[in-house]
Specification:
The protein has about 260 residues and is mainly alpha-helical. The chain has ten helices and two strands, in the order H-H-H-H-E-E-H-H-H-H-H-H. A two-stranded antiparallel sheet has the order 1-2. InterPro entries: DUF5958.
Length: about 260
């Protein structure tokens, strides 16, 4: 399971997109994290930026103000893959995390504001509600908690959630068991994720039959819940994760993410 931003943090980033929270406030908080926390925050923001439907013009606009990070210094980088003509490399080296965070903040805000003008007031997606109002934020939190309770207590999804919890437990139990991984004829260590590495990652997911089963079942469940509650998949993902965590704690008396 992906360790997502907390709901509070996601609200804060969207408030930043609306100009309610300043970039300086986010940078000050970011500076208090350790290296691994910073890296996870950069990855989470990367996901948010991608969900905001970044396009090539957004990237060009931001890169005129914020130069790209130094690709030659990073053994751990992401190749921004989409339908863009050019990719965007996000550097995860320790010395570049602050710069990467600033770049992603600007990219997210640029893409967000374009979407906000089009989606403002959308009933289905709270990202585009007026987040300057405390009562609106409280409404979002309350609705999320209510939805988690509703889905958790829905007998119609009990077998799916129980099965996913069992599969996660099986995978956790098998972590310490050495297994032979699939190999590639060509090297797989690059500064940036190459096409071969993407293929290799897909091979790992397929080779790890438990993870493959989890991903397939979770995706089917999220799509079903998205249709049931008329919510975008990105909003139902947090609800699904929270319910899986509750099932896991109930069945195994421990947290899934620990």
């Amino acid at each position: 399971m992906i360790e997502r931003l907390s709901l509070s943090d996601e609200i804060t980033f969207n408030q930043f997109g609306q100009g309610v929270v300043s970039e300086l406030a986010l940078l000050e908080r970011f500076s208090q994290f350790n290296e691994e926390q910073k890296r996870m925050r950069v990855l989470s923001l990367f996901t948010l930026a991608r969900q905001s439907k970044l396009n090539e013009e957004d990237i060009k606009q931001v890169l005129t103000d914020v130069p790209p990070t130094k690709p030659d210094q990073s053994p751990f980088s992401i190749l921004y893959t989409s339908r863009l003509n050019k990719g965007l490399r996000i550097n995860l080296a320790e010395t570049e995390l602050d710069n990467s965070f600033v770049l992603l903040l600007r990219l997210f805000k640029t893409a967000y504001q374009r979407c906000y003008e089009r989606e403002k007031g959308s009933i289905a997606n709270w990202w585009y509600w007026d987040l300057s109002k405390p009562e609106t934020v409280q409404r979002i939190v309350s609705r999320h908690n209510e939805l988690v309770e509703e889905v958790y207590n829905d007998p119609g999804f009990k077998s799916e959630f129980s099965c996913i919890a069992k599969l996660w437990n099986k995978r956790k139990e098998n972590r310490g068991i050495p297994q032979q991984e699939p190999t590639l004829d060509s090297p797989t260590r690059f500064n940036f994720l190459s096409y071969d590495e993407i293929v290799y990652s897909s091979m790992i997911a397929c080779w790890d039959k438990t993870l493959h089963s989890i991903m397939a079942l979770e995706n089917a469940l999220k799509n079903a819940l998205s249709k049931r509650y008329s919510l975008p998949v990105e909003l139902i993902e947090r609800v699904t994760d929270n319910v899986i965590e509750r099932y896991y704690r109930e069945m195994y008396n421990s947290g899934l993410i620990e």
